[in-house]
Specification:
Elements (H helix, E strand, L loop, with lengths): L2 E6 L14 E7 L2 E5 L10 E5 L4 E4 L5 H10 L1 H4 L4 E5 L5 H4 L9 E5 H6 L5 H14 L5 H14 L14 E3 L2 E6 L2 E7 L9 E5 L4 E3 L17 H14 L3 E3 L8 H24 L3 H9 L2 H5 L11 H12 L9 H19 L3
Helix pairs in contact: 5-6, 6-12, 7-8, 8-9, 8-11, 9-11, 11-12
The chain binds zinc ion.
Length: 352
């Protein structure tokens, strides 16, 4: 089980770390595969591949066109005689759907909320931030430099120039069951957690689950839209399904204990952020206090990749708790938040 059948040997991950597992196509059961990308940091998102006798289903495309093309090229031996006829997007973040435009002939399935969420971030905007960060990282003002370094680390390996948002051709709400020849594929839409419309993809016969970004393994989960309670409910749903193999959105395969760790994180972070909110701390103060505490480190959460993402989660939760309008904050406010996050990353790097 989970044997790497097409390994790719790289000395470094896309974002420059030493790989902790091999990139490649892993066979999970007869006809079922996943393409795993170490170590699961920014844009290093996994894909699922379900093959039947005559056709295949791809779960999630990549963050840009080149990477999606490379993926298709590498899995060619498996899909040559059973071409991809359907793509499923687990949610609307670019690193899971910005390769959709390569599938003009195929059906693209996503929840209605995911479909709407695909328009929240524009490729042109990320390309502009990427260009700006290359310059900013050399400016000898700490805030500019940190902002540039942080964004360059995230966006540097990717190219959004040719990306055109390509929406789903089929949308669903709550639940959808499709077939890939003999394989039943069940799509469960969760209440808003990581994003609006997060979808779990489950294969009942093979007991395999593709979780999308409901699961980050050894990486810090980020709450773009929902609440810790909704996220915990989605994690409990995974436990209830009792899958034998769990493919997270980011990171290596995991088991129920790995799912439980995420529940621990959201219980801990949700509780402490709320405590800070009641005390009158702003989101930056709240996130910094928690992430820089000895307790956070003792819990093992500091060791997860990009622990500074707690600030995005804090900002989202504060919007809920302040009954702010559901619309997304302005781009200026978002950039200020990411700049604060880059500052927190610098402080955290001195502690780990
Ligand atoms: Zn992702």
């Amino acid at each position: 089980m989970t044997k790497c059948v097409i390994p790719i040997q790289n000395n470094r991950t896309r974002t420059g770390a030493v790989p902790v597992f091999t990139e490649g196509l892993y066979k999970l059961a007869d006809d079922i595969y996943s393409w795993m990308i170490p170590n699961g940091s920014w844009g290093e998102s996994n894909h699922g591949l379900i093959t039947g006798r005559t056709k295949s289903i791809l779960v999630d495309t990549a963050w840009d066109i080149k990477l999606t093309n490379t993926l298709l090229d590498r899995i060619k031996p498996v899909i040559e005689s059973k071409p991809i006829t359907t793509v499923i997007n687990t949610h609307g973040d670019g690193d899971h759907c910005w390769g959709n435009q390569l599938f003009t002939e195929q059906e693209i399935i996503a929840s209605t909320a995911t479909q709407q969420g695909m328009y929240h971030v524009k490729p042109e905007m990320l390309q502009l931030i990427k260009k700006t960060s290359v310059v900013a990282q050399h400016i000898p003002i700490p805030r500019c430099k940190h902002f540039g370094q942080w964004f360059n680390h995230m966006l540097g390996p990717y190219n959004y120039k040719d990306v055109k948002i390509t929406p789903a051709t089929t949308t669903f709400d709550k639940e959808l069951i499709i077939q890939c020849d003999d394989h039943e594929v069940v799509l469960f839409e969760m209440e808003t957690a990581h994003t609006e419309g997060d979808t779990l993809v489950y294969l009942p016969k093979d007991e395999i689950l593709f979780s999308g970004d409901i699961l980050f393994i050894q990486g810090t989960p980020v709450l773009w839209a929902g609440t810790p309670d909704n996220w915990i409910n989605a994690l409990k749903k995974i436990i209830e399904l009792k899958p034998k193999v769990i493919v997270p959105g980011h990171g290596y395969f995991t088991d129920i204990a790995g799912v439980q760790r995420l529940i621990d994180y959201w219980q801990y972070v949700g509780h402490h952020l709320n405590k800070q909110f009641i005390l009158g701390a702003n989101p930056v103060e709240a996130a910094n206090t928690i992430a820089l505490s000895n307790e956070f480190k003792a819990q093992g959460f500091l060791q997860w990749d990009a622990a500074e993402r707690i600030l995005t989660s804090a900002t989202t939760l504060y919007r809920h708790w302040s009954n702010a309008p559901p619309s997304k904050p302005s781009i200026v406010k978002q950039l200020k938040m990411f700049s604060d996050q880059a500052e927190l990353a610098v402080l955290l790097s001195k502690r780990s």
